Amino acid sequence: MNAHDSSQTDVRLDDSPELRPEREATVGSAGRRRRPQRGERLMVPDAEFRSYYGRPVLQETPWQAPDIAGYLFLGGLAGASSVLAATAELSGRPRLARACKTGALCALGGSLYALIHDLGRPQRFLYMLRTFKVTSPMSVGTWILTAYGPQAGLAAATAVTGLFPRLGRAATMGAGLTGGAVATYTAALVANTAVPAWHDGHRELPYLFAGSAAASAGGLGMLAAPLAEAGPARRLALAGAVAEYAAAKRMERRMGPVAEPLKRGPGGLLLRLGTGLSLSGAAAGILLGRRDRRAAVAAGAALLAGAICTRFGIFHAGLDSSRDPAYTVEPQRARLSHPSQAPS
Amino acid sequence: MTLLEPDDPATSSGYADHPERMGFFTDTSVCIGCKACEVACKEWNHVPEDLLGFTGMSFDNTAGLGANTWRHVAFVEQPRRLGRQESGLVAADLPAGTVEAARDRTPASLGLPSHDGATGSASDMEFRWLMASDVCKHCTHAACLDVCPTGSLFRTEFGTVVVQEDICNGCGYCVPACPYGVIAKREDDGRVWKCTLCYDRLTVGQEPACAKSCPTDSIQFGELGELRERAARRVEQLHEAGVESARLYGHDPGDGVGGTGAFFLLLDEPEVYGLPPDPVVTTRDLPAMWRHVAVAATALLTVAAAVTWGSRT
Predict the structure, then answer these.
(1) In 10 A of CB A66, how many CB atoms?
(2) pLDDT reported for residue B288
(3) B164 CB near a chain A CB, below 8 Å?
(4) How many structural domains does chain B have?
(5) B178 among annotated binding-site residues
(6) Which of A200, A311, B68, B258 is the most buried (most CB within 10 A)?
(7) Where on this chain does [4Fe-4S] cluster 4 bind (chain B) (predicted)?
């Protein structure tokens, strides 16, 4: 660098031997990153976050919302309904038990349809039974459903037909015990991915899913059973809705910036709607559903709708978080800069 | 942790007697962006056509790894130069007469637009291209392999991770499990596909097609231990040459995926190339997930019993 170079000018003289030609001066402008479309502004200061043309780091999850989000709801409904059916049977509430068993079997049928329909090669669905892998919640879930399904089916069939009551009771107990696993393992299923909003919620999602499943089973009981027998359904719905709300709040707080897709966008909207419907349905069930049949039906419907919204909300929030590289890169960057603050 | 394997994935997968773990060392500092690796991979593995169009992303019209792209060359344009890099923007030898004539003239601004909105200067012209050929990492702790419910994904005797297409039923679980966004579902086919590290070629002692075709040896194939030593020497050499930004990515067996079978020498942060800066195999947290699931399931049974009998008293 000599003195001549340091006096920079706006215009180059083509014939000045001291200056370099400017032919490449604007090329770099094409390579600047494109802004990510969602969430970027609140995640990080602009200068720090970098990505490859704003493209997501993760692949798009190839699961269809009606199938897999639908299964999250139906599986939860089936499992928790079987739990409620078992306690109803043991406590001498045959009509609540029968309603829950029938509902569980219908939800199970929908679940199996959705799960097989979502496969890229549906005719190969039995390949799931080639192996058992504890590292794969999908494999564990397949075996849970294999243990649960026949018992739930037997419980419903014997309750409806009145045949083989003792066999029916054993199946009801078996379905009730495995039903708890059916309703909650799906939390591990979605959390055991690299999708930021799902994985980072792995501590709270099982409780959120259990709560949502309990609320929907309570809703089903209120809808289908007579008022006199639906007491446990009303109380289960209230406990479930409160647990779901508490787990969701705790999850949002702990996840920090990655919780944004849970609060805004389609996922956030569905989750707010789901919480509102569940809490108001549960409250209406307890306060009005005791005496008024129509109020009980409305509260039950609100609870079922709330559970659907919650599951679809979690599903869409996860997909949104995987589409924005900021949610993948930023927490990892923060972990590298502050290793001491990394979660265990 | 029982779920995770040690650094020798072939042994922990049950191969009593197996060859050395094989892998790729992709040295992006000598990548010239020719995409021979992309073409060779497609040709050898009969990978179907992908996007045919313009992305507007520099010279990268492949966009990223996917079911139909198992090697992907990234192009990053940056307004900075490499250490001791000669940009090639040198003044030509001019006739003495021209030099004389220009000497007395005073430059004046004509208000023309220039790079970055700032006034033009020689430093603005410092510019570099980062090119990097991305591929499946063949992780030591591979999330895709862990979550596969059918056993379609398996560990080979070379320590690599391969999909058995006659087993895959297209459940798609491996796709969101991969922290690098490598494996993907082929839409018209329903199954998932990714780099096999040319398993067929390895079994007959051939190197993978991409490494074979790389004209600058940016893609180096070999025994992983030897590649790691070679990479360490290369980083040292680059640092001595003034390329301070050179760093390895995926070479460390202590990282979140236990080190990768395909690792890289990069000249900027990984996220600039579209790579996650600190990937972690999702199954590392799975024991905690199962514990919480067990507690939640028990709580569901307990609460259901409590609301049924608790109010009778």
Answers:
(1) 11
(2) 97
(3) no
(4) 1
(5) yes
(6) A311
(7) 148, 168, 171, 174
